[in-house]
Design a protein that fits this description.
281 residues, alpha+beta, Jelly Rolls
Length: 281
Amino acid sequence: MDSLHVRSVDLQSSDASHHFVKSLQQTGFAVLHEHPIDMNLVNEVYSMWSNFFISTQKHNYLFHNVKQDGYFPFKSENAKGSDEKDLKEFFHIYPWGRCPELLETKTRKLYSQLVDLACQLLKWIEKEVPIEISSNFSIPLEKMIEDSPQNLLRIINYPAISGSEKPNAVRAAAHEDINLITVLCAGTESGLQAQDVDGNWHDIQCDPGSIAVNTGDMLQMCSNNYFPSTTHRVINPEGDKSNVARMSMPLFLHPKDDVVLSMEHTAGTYLFERLQEIGLK
């Protein structure tokens, strides 16, 4: 495969739903433009959290081992099957969870906008897929995430590369997402890559102002593999960019725990299994 043909979708176009769902089905990814997310708000939230991560205040919000909200220090997480911890720190924002007071109003506003967009995208998926696929869904997709306490906005900081990292340590090792879909504000720097079916890696061209969306394991599972949960990673920068930090803000859309995904799993049982595999449980 010479390229991973991730479609760039204008959400204002009349055929946006078709191209969005087709791109997810073919590649596991889509990149959205002309979307309703307030980019001034996105930039403000990035700036506020950048200041948070370089402060000592972050240590006052150390993550709760059971609830999983709060601040996760550098090298807290490893990808499934990886022996090396990822070169990142992050903060988990749940609808019920902690958020630093000075950051809360704008962060929650962005969270709400992203959830609204995700609900529209899930409706498009339900509308565009063949009936034999949608009949696998135990309830409509947008109902799976409605008022879900597991919906998660993760604010990620990838610090500048020091040069002393182990050869196989990367910002985010190859992995698949756990959830239904991920809605990702474009990172402040490049580095996101996805893998094609032949094992080749391709840059995901997510320009400033765009939104990337990718399929997670739960949608792959409940669609009987119609939507691929594509392996992706964040590579380390090189040259002049090696001393530049990178931030990203993925919203992971998780069904409520009791939602049935397959004969083997509810959303809750699958999430617990995966959190154990990546070192967060």
